[in-house]
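Write out this protein's structure.
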Amino acid sequence: SEECTPVIDMSHWHDQKVADSVCDAAETWGFFQIVNHGVPLGVFEDVKEATHRREVEVFKKENSPSSNVRFGTSFTPEAEKALEWKNYLSLFYVTDDEASIFWPPVCKNQTQEFIRSSELVIKKLLQVLMRRLNINEIDEEKESMLMGSKRINLNYYPICPNPELTIGVGRHSDTISGGSIYVRKMDTDSWVHVPPISGSLLINVRDALQIMSNGRHKSIEHRMVASGSNSRISVPIFVNPRPADVTGPLAEVLESGEEPMYKQVLYSDYVKHFFSKGHDGKDTVEFAKI
């Protein structure tokens, strides 16, 4: 039978079995889907509809009213060999007030609601993942490190006239996209298709969490394949350390005498390195290796 990424029912998230499933998925796949997560279906539908009717052209980088609102059509055009077949609106969340003023009216309410609803789920998942790392309470400092900055992207993938000549989104380990997603299985290096499940949330471990867990939770490569038959959208939410945070293996993880695999890195330096090159798989996380 074909291998599949885990699908986890979160309706009883206090149950130890659920917690174990989440941690096992983060350690062996770095990528999993959750169902019965508590984000209302209506919130999904609203943000999908908003993505379809967003006024992206108005927010091209050179005339955006805020550096936290960006429109783009590829990852790093200068560094890419094949142009990605998508455009996106990227919204960096600072506060509700800032978003109300600067985010496009056509989608700001829906995207803010999606962030609010998803935040509860993200916190639950992080509590479970941290407990596996001997951290029983996420204090303010840790919360900042784990989810101090948030970004939401409204991605639109038009029908592609020559899907064999483009990539939907290049293979990379640190962002997530909708449509035909494939993940690279760690032990075999083979690409595994992630079948979409209606109403599910797709979760992936990001590089910062791999570094903080000293390599226990895995950030794995994934890619999206362009389609010649239909357009698609995806609305990923990214949670990261703040740019001024210094990330490295958490003290609690190293308490038992485990050797650190990663150095302490200023997160803004890490991000600069990530965006300075095209999508080339896992090379970014090597930047933090000791």
